[in-house]
Design a protein that fits this description.
By secondary structure, the chain is an alpha+beta fold. Helices cover about 25% and strands about 35% of the residues. The strands form two sheets. The protein has a 22-stranded mixed sheet that branches. The protein has a two-stranded antiparallel ribbon with strand order 5-6.
Length: about 425
């Protein structure tokens, strides 16, 4: 099967704002989009079918590339649940086979259509090149998000976690708070918000049976090839401060984050956990910390992000890789197995897609990249959103409450 590529000269394509371009040019309601304005590249699926989850798990993520060049061409896009609890009568995890895509390179200001020769037989088609502009619906009234916990209930849950830590049950636990709204949110409204607040791992998925909008700034793991084999990197996020309009105050927030021993300890625990996770899939003595935690700024928050790297063992399946690494350490805690049990007790519900992952595996370049579904909204009967923070022995409940409210402000609307 061959891969064809076509460079495009799209005067109407806004390289600096892929979300506005999608809203104006994509006529179909069903969309699969990865990356946004703050990404190096964005990809829009133009043709796709539902893929086989078992076939995806049996793939070899470290297979040698069949083609050099663009990081994304065509391949598999998987939405991986945090836990495999069913959503209705079907598993929460989904995988899509993308056979034709529009790749936008924001650095090179270049657009390319990649297509496999059998793309025309795909069930879902999106004709990006048609000049029939999508109708931009007027903005709805901003939705009101209602929490399943009151502030008092959340603070009590935090104090309960801190008591567990003092008793030695675990060292760190990532606790979520959930909000929901019964009010409709239009595609235009979501895309406008993603344009303004989306992180580098943003995604918009609106396909039969799944609506998901992710503002995520967090890479989970990435695979790249070099002459010696396959390199895997993971980039956990810990530590949060708000972005504020006043430059002096914003600088103070950044300095406070980098000087915080509490935030440094929180990140160090997760770095150590992820080193241990990588040891399970990497060659001996290859795992190393490249960055113990540098400052990164996004639309509404500053974070500390670390980088851990290893050299992947040969012949691993995707299933073995996901079993070793999922769910991500930054959204569970340490030690992982015990905090996963505690999370289910404290939150009293399955997370399903919240804090799960999007994994994209390219069929031609061999590249694989993934995100953690933080700052993500999911629609089933209604829209729902979750925000959380890592709790350690020195956590202050009031500060943790303020942190998750800061994170929640990526969503359109008001939180009550």
């Amino acid at each position: 099967m061959a891969l064809q590529s076509l460079d495009l000269d799209l005067d109407r394509l806004w390289f600096d704002d892929i979300w506005s371009a999608i809203d104006r040019l994509a006529p179909e309601p069903n969309l699969l989009v990865l990356g946004g304005r703050r990404s190096r590249q964005s990809m829009v699926a133009l043709s796709w079918d539902e893929g086989s989850w078992s076939e995806f798990l049996n793939e070899k993520p470290g297979a040698p590339p069949r083609r050099r060049g663009d990081r994304w061409t065509t391949g598999h896009l998987a939405v991986v649940a945090y836990d495999e609890a069913p959503a209705g009568n079907r598993p929460a995890s989904r995988v899509f086979r993308i056979k034709r895509s529009l790749l936008i390179d924001h650095i090179a200001r270049r657009a390319v259509i990649h297509q496999e020769e059998d793309w025309a037989r795909c069930q879902h088609q999106l004709d990006w090149t048609s000049q029939a502009a999508a109708s931009c619906s007027s903005l709805n009234q901003l939705p009101h998000w209602e929490s399943t916990w009151t502030d008092a209930m959340y603070l009590a849950a935090v104090r309960d976690v801190l008591e567990d830590i003092r008793r030695g049950r675990y060292y760190q636990l990532n606790l979520l708070r959930y909000w929901s709204t019964a009010e409709p949110i239009s595609r235009h409204q979501w895309l406008a918000q993603l344009s303004h607040m989306g992180g580098p791992f943003s995604a918009y998925i609106d396909v039969p049976g799944l609506q998901l909008v992710s503002f995520s700034p967090e890479r989970f793991f990435r695979l790249t090839h070099d002459a010696a084999g396959v390199v895997i990197e993971t980039e956990p996020i810990k530590g949060t401060r708000p972005v504020v309009a006043d430059p002096d105050e914003d600088r103070r927030q950044q300095e406070e984050l980098m000087a915080s021993t509490k935030d440094a300890a929180e990140l160090n625990m997760i770095v150590d956990l992820l080193r241990n996770d990588l040891f399970r899939v990497c060659q001996p003595a290859s795992v190393k910390v490249l960055d113990s935690g540098s400052l990164h700024s996004f639309a509404n928050v500053h974070h500390r992000i670390a980088r851990i790297q290893g050299r992947l063992c040969p012949d691993l399946s995707m299933e073995a890789l996901l079993q070793a690494l999922c769910p991500g350490g930054s959204i569970t805690g340490a030690p992982k197995r015990e905090v996963m049990l505690a999370i289910r007790e404290k939150e009293a519900r399955p997370r399903q897609l919240f804090m799960g992952n999007i994994v994209y595996k390219d069929a031609w370049t061999g590249c694989l990249d993934s995100s953690i579904l933080i700052r993500t909204a999911v629609h089933q009967d209604h829209w729902e959103f979750a925000a959380g923070s890592g709790l350690v022995i020195h956590s202050d409940p009031a500060a943790e409450l303020e942190e998750i409210l800061t994170k929640a402000r990526v969503m359109p609307g008001e939180f009550v």
